[in-house]
User: Which sequence fits this backbone?
């Protein structure tokens, strides 16, 4: 829906920010909201806002206030249950002047205090100030769909939807966060609150930051909670009862995300998740919708056959973008600029080109299928767990067992890779400046989850919880989703991350209906039987893998090769240039390929980190 930014002083000092600085912060968010922009400045608070108009196109200007003007808020996102909440507020005497969903936020706060967040079903990042209590709140939605970043400098809390906006404040200095860099080599993504910028933090999903009495305190208001082992399987419900309820909550999740005063489009990948969304959406309207897909010349990657099947079934106006390796090299600087981080693969480039196509066709909001794999055991790791539980696991070195115990509280749990082996590899990769004090930046020494949350729960739920924390918010939703969609002024909406659907899937749906034997997403496939073509349901899961660094290097692109020059790597001081050039020589060999995701593409992280240093003008180490 928009971009938000602002500054609030911890000590309530006057003249919190120069108008020119706020203007620069707002300008850097223009792509998130090209339809309107505004600012609100008092002695102690400055708020900036850019708008992407989707509801009540004429009257959605922010900030919004309560009746007395004592509560003010700027909000990014959508509240899908706002009509019901609005009616409740009206019965309590509140005055609502527009049909914009975000107008209810200050009134909900006035009515329920901070408990109002628990009434929201949507995707949102909110900055709210209560002038009576002199309290400021920064709030991020339950699953982390909408990003919100902040830093505290000279007693000023500086915040924004994107880091580039924060960087416009004169108190903010740029420096690489080495722990975050190490996380990027180790986990599916950087893990909040870390970002690749030192001292600039990503507010974790399901959290809010309360600023009161000169103190900033982070509060967790939501988490993905799975039942304990002794609670699993106690229900007397039959399978068909679960499936019927699942279809009901899924149908509602799709329907409420179609609400807008401008057309809503559909991403169609050819897989189960996006197909279910597209076909369900077609049930709620006879109007022909626009659908969008990425295609490839390489037949091994191309899913156009299945994409066109879905488009034909729902009679959509279908648009394709044929993705080429040249798109990666040509768009990489823009993609890293919008991502605000180095990348683990080139997939973001495909997402970027797809949203550009959506924008070109006049669509501002799109439905997409992220979240299903994490909730319904869609990744191969869930099947590995099932196999190992039946066949047993191989012997594991003591050092690796100790790392797993430290990370997950379970030495038998394997997630992604052997961390002890990776640790030795990273020591070769990093420069001497980093390696000499490696223990200080070694991300394995810094907790990434609360281990108590995954103690004594089903193994499938354990992996789901970790995926939800390490893979979904900052990687799939932020990097692939929000940042690549909003780069082209498009809002992505996620039916599988609906609050009611998550509640049902995590608390009620038993694990054996998520993974039945080795059949992933069993429950989804069962309800899909009623409306999705059989070819989609029965096709093997297809893991889309964009071209990696070997393909890019073998193309001989001058810019990429210049980024990896020995002198440049040595001057920057982050990596060992000898080891980088060993990798470069290996990856440059004709026909060399990596079996992604089972083999690490170290060089794509190095390349995109060098692009990151370049586009953000980051200092050498």
Assistant:
């Amino acid at each position: 829906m928009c971009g938000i930014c602002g500054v609030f002083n911890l000590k309530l000092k006057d003249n919190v920010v120069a108008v020119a600085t706020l203007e620069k912060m707002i300008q850097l968010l223009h792509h998130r909201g090209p339809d309107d922009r505004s600012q609100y400045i008092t002695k102690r608070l400055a708020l900036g806002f850019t708008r992407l108009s989707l509801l009540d196109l004429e009257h959605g200007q922010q900030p919004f206030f309560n009746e007395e003007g004592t509560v003010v808020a700027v909000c990014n996102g959508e509240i899908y249950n706002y009509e019901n909440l609005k009616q409740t507020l009206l019965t309590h005497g509140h005055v609502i002047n527009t049909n914009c969903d975000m107008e209810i936020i200050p009134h909900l706060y006035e009515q329920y205090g901070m408990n109002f967040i628990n009434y929201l079903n949507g995707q949102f990042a909110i900055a709210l100030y209560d002038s009576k209590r002199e309290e400021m709140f920064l709030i991020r939605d339950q699953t982390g769909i909408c990003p919100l970043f902040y830093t505290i400098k000279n007693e000023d809390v500086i915040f924004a939807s994107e880091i580039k906006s924060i960087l416009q404040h004169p108190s903010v200095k740029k420096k690489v966060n080495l722990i975050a860099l190490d996380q990027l080599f180790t986990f599916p993504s950087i893990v909040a609150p870390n970002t690749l910028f030192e001292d600039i933090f990503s507010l974790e999903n399901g959290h809010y930051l309360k600023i009161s009495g000169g103190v900033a305190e982070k509060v967790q208001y939501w988490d993905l909670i799975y039942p304990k082992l002794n609670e699993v399987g106690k229900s007397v419900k039959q399978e068909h009862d679960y499936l019927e309820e699942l279809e009901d909550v899924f149908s509602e999740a799709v329907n409420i995300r179609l609400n807008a005063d401008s057309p809503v489009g559909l991403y169609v990948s050819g897989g189960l998740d996006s197909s279910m969304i597209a076909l369900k959406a077609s049930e709620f309207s006879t109007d022909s919708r626009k659908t969008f897909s990425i295609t490839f010349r390489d037949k091994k990657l191309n899913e156009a056959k299945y994409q066109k099947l879905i488009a034909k079934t729902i009679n959509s106006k279908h648009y394709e973008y044929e993705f080429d390796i040249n798109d990666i090299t040509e768009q990489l600087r823009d993609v890293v600029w919008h991502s605000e981080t180095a990348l683990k693969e080139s997939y973001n480039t495909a997402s970027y080109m797809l949203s550009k196509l959506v924008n070109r066709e006049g669509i501002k909001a799109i439905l997409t299928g992220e979240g299903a794999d994490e909730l319904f055991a869609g990744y191969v790791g869930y099947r590995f767990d099932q196999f190992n539980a039946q066949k047993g696991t191989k012997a594991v070195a003591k050092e690796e067992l100790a790392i797993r115990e430290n990370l997950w509280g379970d030495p038998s749990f394997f997630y992604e890779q052997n961390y002890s082996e990776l640790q030795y590899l990273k020591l070769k990769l990093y420069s001497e400046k980093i390696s000499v004090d490696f223990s200080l930046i070694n991300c394995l020494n810094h907790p990434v989850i609360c281990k108590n949350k995954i103690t004594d729960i089903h193994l499938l739920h354990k992996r789901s919880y970790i995926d939800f924390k390490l893979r979904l918010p900052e990687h799939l939703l932020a990097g692939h989703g929000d940042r690549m969609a909003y780069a082209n002024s498009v809002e992505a909406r996620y039916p599988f991350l609906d609050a009611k659907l998550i509640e049902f899937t995590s608390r009620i749906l038993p694990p054996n209906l998520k993974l039945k034997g080795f059949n992933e997403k069993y429950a989804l496939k069962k309800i899909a039987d009623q409306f999705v073509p059989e070819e989609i349901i029965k096709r093997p899961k297809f893991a889309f893998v964009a071209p990696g660094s070997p393909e890019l290097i073998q193309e001989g692109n001058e810019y990429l090769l210049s980024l990896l020059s020995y002198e440049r790597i040595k001057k920057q001081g982050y990596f060992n240039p000898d080891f980088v050039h060993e990798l470069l020589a290996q990856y440059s060999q004709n026909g060399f390929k990596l079996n992604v995701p089972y083999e690490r593409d170290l060089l794509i992280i190095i390349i995109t980190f060098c692009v990151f240093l370049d586009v953000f003008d980051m200092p050498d180490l």
In short: The first helix runs from residue 19 to 27.
